[in-house]
């Protein structure tokens, strides 16, 4: 229960509702006890009339009529309060589920890029949905059934012992066995259903991937192999499901067997006592009803125990993520204005998961409004520079300053708000094109969206679609070409009107003519913005004020375009190579 203590803050938050729920549960339970007692009384009255102990039929009728009225009234009230009980306690569990999901989601938002690299998306999704769902079972049904069972026991057991102690003992005897067996059975069911669940995630990952990669599958003609793998997986799934079904099938027969055994004991012991004149006939009937009333709550003890155990495991998994301290922390509460003067002072950086040192003693400076082009072989550390500027990671060694302040001492929000980044793999949401562009500026007007799209040279493409800017992208809509995606992603960055614009090889999929057009536009609007362009193409570096050439994490050349095409080295080689390609 240690892990589940995390939920106490929510129980305190909803303490009013919880107390009301407990009270209602107790009331509902008390009203449900009326019926067996009064049915027992009624049968005793009838028995006494048959035995001629009562001779006046009117008294019998009056008594029966009164009992019926009370039974109907008490049952109606019990039903009404049971309804209210569910409305309060189950509702609380939904509130707790909602709050917990929000808490986990908020934590996911705060966690750094590194965390996402170390944990699989499926696992993140599972903890916020499956695990929170299991914890909800503890916050609602488990609490509700526990209160019901405790109330029932507290009222019923003394009542049974007062009415007929010997029959009471024999009635209660098989119940702990029932509870234990249900507990054991539930554990076995849960073990097998976890296996089925895990298998289902595997199967859905496989099918999802085979649908997403259908073009590759078709192009390589491997449909038969995929079909065979799928068949084998489904067969495996069938076996796992059969294991579960076999255990599940024991549940109700076992319940019925144990209820039957309790009933037989009551009838046998109670019957003997009745024959000996130790108890009245009505008491026998009353006890048979008690057995049936007790069976389900006793069974729930086993059920609730396994729910709590599962919730504990799930909450542990949730707490593991909630306890992670985000690597990137905002240390400055107040907003800090950002001009965009960037300076790297002897910066080195190693990715802790791969242990790759992506940057080695990198130093450069860039004034606000200047453009820097970063050129270099693949894997030389270009993207890492951009990630460090936007504080996706913190440096191990050296300092990055913006406006002469170390970036760790800048307000993280201000920093990221001042930066627009166009990543290498343009990611667009399954929304309309307009929504995707407006992602950079939520309150952007239609005109601003169009201006940004024109700027990124994608407007003509967009209006060519039947629904224009309202065209839905992704799985539910159309698929944009690589170049179109890159340009929509540029429009999204531009509309934000940032002080610092970071372009990570984001023109690689557009033709040189469009590249030229976009670069001219960028130059026009970035006069007072700091811009960094990462590229493999010399043409992208042409208008830059400064160029640095990276190789294996080190700056091997730096200078202006004119300087570098004259200087022997990687840049000149690339220039000559791309020049000759152009001539071909
Ligand atoms: N998230 C990461 N985790 C671990 N290692 C990484 C990560 N990102 C990059 N690396 C490694 O760091 C080195 C530099 O990568 P980076 O992406 O900065 O290169 P790049 O110059 O941008 O390459 P490209 O031109 O191919 O985009 C590479 O060796 C890469 O394998």
TrEMBL record:
It is found in: Cell membrane. Pfam families: ABC_membrane, ABC_tran. The chain crosses the membrane at residues 18-39, 64-84, 142-161, 167-185, 247-269, 289-308. Residues 342-577 form the ABC transporter domain. This is ABC transporter ATP-binding protein. The keyword ATP-binding applies. One of its GO terms (molecular function) is ATP binding. SUPFAM superfamilies: ABC transporter transmembrane region (SSF90123), P-loop containing nucleoside triphosphate hydrolases (SSF52540). Residues 19-310 form the ABC transmembrane type-1 domain.
């Amino acid at each position: 229960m240690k892990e589940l203590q995390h939920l106490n803050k929510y129980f305190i938050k909803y303490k009013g509702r919880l107390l009301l729920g407990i009270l209602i549960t107790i009331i509902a339970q008390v009203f449900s006890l009326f019926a067996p007692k009064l049915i027992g009384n009624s049968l005793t009255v009838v028995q006494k009339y048959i035995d001629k102990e009562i001779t006046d039929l009117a008294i019998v009728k009056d008594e029966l009529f009164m009992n019926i009225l009370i039974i109907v009234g008490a049952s109606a009230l019990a039903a009404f309060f049971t309804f209210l009980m569910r409305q309060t306690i189950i509702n609380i569990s939904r509130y707790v589920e909602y709050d917990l999901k929000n808490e986990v989601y908020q934590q996911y938002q705060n966690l750094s890029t590194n965390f996402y690299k170390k944990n699989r998306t499926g696992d993140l999704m599972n903890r916020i949905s499956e695990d929170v769902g299991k914890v909800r079972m503890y916050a609602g049904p488990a609490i509700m059934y526990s209160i019901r069972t405790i109330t029932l026991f507290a009222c019923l057991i003394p009542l049974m012992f007062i009415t007929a102690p010997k029959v009471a003992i024999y009635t209660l005897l098989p119940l702990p066995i029932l509870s234990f067996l249900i507990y054991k059975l539930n554990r076995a069911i849960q073990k097998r259903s976890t296996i089925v669940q895990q298998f289902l995630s595997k199967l859905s990952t496989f099918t999802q991937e085979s649908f997403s990669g259908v073009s590759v599958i078709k192009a390589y003609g491997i449909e038969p192999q995929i079909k065979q793998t799928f068949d084998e997986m489904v067969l495996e799934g069938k076996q796992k499901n059969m294991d579960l079904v076999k255990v599940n099938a024991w549940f109700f027969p076992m319940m019925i067997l144990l209820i039957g055994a309790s009933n037989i004991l009551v009838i046998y012991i109670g019957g003997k006592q009745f024959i000996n004149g130790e108890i009245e006939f009505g008491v026998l009937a009353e006890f048979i009803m008690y057995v049936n009333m007790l069976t389900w709550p006793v069974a729930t003890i086993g059920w609730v125990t396994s729910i709590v155990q599962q919730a504990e495991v799930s909450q542990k998994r949730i707490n593991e993520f909630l306890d992670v301290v985000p690597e990137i922390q905002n240390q400055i509460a107040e907003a800090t204005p950002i001009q965009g003067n960037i300076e790297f002072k002897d910066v080195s950086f190693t990715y802790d998961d791969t242990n790759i040192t992506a940057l080695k003693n990198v130093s450069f400076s860039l004034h606000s409004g200047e453009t820097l082009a970063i050129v270099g072989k693949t894997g030389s550390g270009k993207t890492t520079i951009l990630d460090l500027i936007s504080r996706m990671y913190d440096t191990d060694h050296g300092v990055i300053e913006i406006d002469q302040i170390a970036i760790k001492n800048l307000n993280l929000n201000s920093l990221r708000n001042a930066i627009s980044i166009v990543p290498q793999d343009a990611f667009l949401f399954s929304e309309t094109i307009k929504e995707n562009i407006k992602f950079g500026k939520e309150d952007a007007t239609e005109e601003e969206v169009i201006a940004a799209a024109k700027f990124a040279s994608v407007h003509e493409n967009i209006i060519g679609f039947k629904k224009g800017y309202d065209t839905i992208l992704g799985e539910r809509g159309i698929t944009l070409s690589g170049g179109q995606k890159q340009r929509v992603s540029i429009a999204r960055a531009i509309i934000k009107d940032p002080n610092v614009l970071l372009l990570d090889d984001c023109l690689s999929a557009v033709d040189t003519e469009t590249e030229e057009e976009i670069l001219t536009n960028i130059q026009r609007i970035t006069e007072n913005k700091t811009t960094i362009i990462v590229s493999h193409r010399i043409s992208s570096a042409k208008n830059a004020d400064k160029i640095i050439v990276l190789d294996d994490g080190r700056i091997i050349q730096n200078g202006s375009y004119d300087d570098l095409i004259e200087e022997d080295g990687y840049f000149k080689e690339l220039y000559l190579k791309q020049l000759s390609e152009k001539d071909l």
